[in-house]
Design a protein that fits this description.
Length: 218
């Protein structure tokens, strides 16, 4: 049998200096980051409505001299977490009111943040700040539900993936010349990944009793 042909729509939208693109999990919104602001496009309007003339909702979450470092959409609701290069963490809820073309800059949820991610069901998010992993609920994004010490307080977390309800994958950077527990000496700016069980039942928001899995060096 011949595979069915797919209909494709192409729209050219001119935005200067785009360096991040991210679709919401339901495919309804497209986030486009520039060095100055964050643009949120309605995908249906972009492809089937106004096209290139579609007006995005704009939010200036960055200050001069910084830009967006990470974007993470929730899988449960239209909620977007933004981390800037200066370590500010923001939570954005796209407006539902039609005709609104700007979004007030929210207050930062935290500072000194290097990485963030949602849990698989989108009810919790975790971010690395200083020597801790801090977990918060989507409905209370400004309050810590729990805080977990980093496996290695001397390492800087540069990425987080909440892969499974009971498992986080951390990408970390270590200092040059530092010796690992295996005896290997870390080269300058090398990166390794730690796979660790953080808790057994994430609904309880308590560290699990099980021993952490060993570090995986990549």
């Amino acid at each position: 049998d011949r595979p069915q042909s797919l209909e494709c729509s192409a729209v050219s939208v001119k935005i200067e200096g785009v360096h991040f693109l991210a679709f919401s999990m339901d495919g309804s919104l497209l986030a486009a980051c520039t060095h100055e602001s964050l643009h949120l496009y309605d995908v249906h309007d972009l492809l089937h409505g106004a096209g290139a003339a579609s007006q995005p909702v704009e939010c200036r979450v960055v200050e001069p001299g910084e830009h967006v470092a990470q974007l993470r959409w929730s899988s449960q609701q239209l909620q977007l977490l933004v981390v800037t290069t200066r370590g500010h963490l923001f939570s954005l809820h796209p407006p539902s009111a039609p005709g609104l073309h700007s979004l007030a800059k929210p207050a930062p949820l935290a500072g000194g943040v290097h990485a963030v991610d949602w849990n698989p069901c989108g009810s919790l998010f975790v971010f690395a700040s200083e020597t801790q992993l801090r977990v918060r609920r989507a409905e209370e994004p400004s309050l810590d539900a729990c805080a977990l010490p980093l496996p290695d307080p001397e390492a800087a977390v540069c990425s987080i993936s909440w892969a499974l309800p009971s498992c986080l994958i951390l990408g970390v950077e270590t200092a040059a010349g530092r010796q690992m527990s295996s005896g290997a000496v870390v080269a300058p700016d090398s990166e390794h990944y730690l796979l660790e069980v953080t808790w057994q039942r994430h609904e309880e928001l308590a560290p699990g009793a099980g021993a952490p899995l060993p570090a995986l060096l990549v």
